[in-house]
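dumping this here before i forget
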Amino acid sequence: MFRTQQNAFDDAVAKATDENLTSENWEFILDVCDRAGAEDSGPKDAVAAMIKRLAHRNANVQLYTLELANALSQNCGPRVHRELASRSFTDALLRLANDRNSHQQVKAKILERMEEWTKMFSNDPDLGIMEQAYMKLKTQNPNLHPPSKPTKRQITEVDRQKEEEELQMALALSIKEKPTAPSSSKKPSQGGPSAAGSSQQSAPSQPVPSGTTAATVSRVRALFDFQPSEAGELQFRKGDIIAVLESVYKDWWKGSLRGQTGIFPLNYVEKLADPTQDELQQDARMEAEVFAEIKNVEKLLTLLSTSSSELNVKDNEEITTLYHQTLAIRPKLIELIGKYSQKKDDFTQLNEKFIKARRDYESLLEASISQPVQQYGRPQQQYGYNVGGYPSQGPQSQQGPGRYYTPGPP
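structure:
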């Protein structure tokens, strides 16, 4: 199908789309982006190498290639856009999407990326081939669109009982398994921006099954974009990680995302496993590595800002060493920015809830303090109770002052 002609990008693209990767390797991806932007024939050679990778029969290789193409479109400008909107690349996408042996997740990802590129290239009429290919694919594959939202049905007592039983069972299992954290737990890396993040080709992303309860699920990943059509629904984009709060309707859960809370349909999301102890330790090590490089970044900035304009940076060994040292943390830094952006949103939402709870509490406390004393059972004539705790019949006592007991002056 393709001649085995090698180009300068074949090895770099193969590294960035290796089937054995468990998530996107941003160091390799950014290396391809940097080279494509720096070399005259870079965009053409990079896209040619990606076309070869799209012909690979492994679904993960195809998904990684689509992510690499997306990174190039966002980082390398018009020259890469022209190559992505070329007849050769769009034909390769259509071939893969229409191949009956292609994984459904790969087909959905192609449709998603082509839609994004169509919008990105819409201001340049020379790139209209992408829009034509997208419309053709959309017409030929109507089943790639998001599913219909399930009907909102009230949760029955049987459903509540099932949820409680699942929760109790999960708690019992967690107590038994606590000493040994399973090392083979599934990594939450399928679908969304990290769609290629699993080496398990036989276990693609699947929506949460109908009837599943929220008792044992703490977070989910969006498989499709979701636009609310009613008040109280949660808007999200494909790939967003949503914190699960509770079951609200049958096949609808309540969740929070970026400071917003609302309900969402189960068939738009997939369950994510909680991170294992090993994964948490790995994240901590990565953060430590990034923060350890801060002093080198500051030192590099100081050297560059204090050096004269005549300095030959290439010949300065110290600056060159520091530059390459700090460049290595760039992919990790990007990952941490995304991670902490989500955490910031979560903490902001929590803070807003706390402020509202504090205001409500202070308001209720103030109202309680200003309430009439009789609310606490203390006898006060002016509020309708005499010293014996019986109604004082205020108006009648005025008509017949001798008929009822009236406290005398002290």
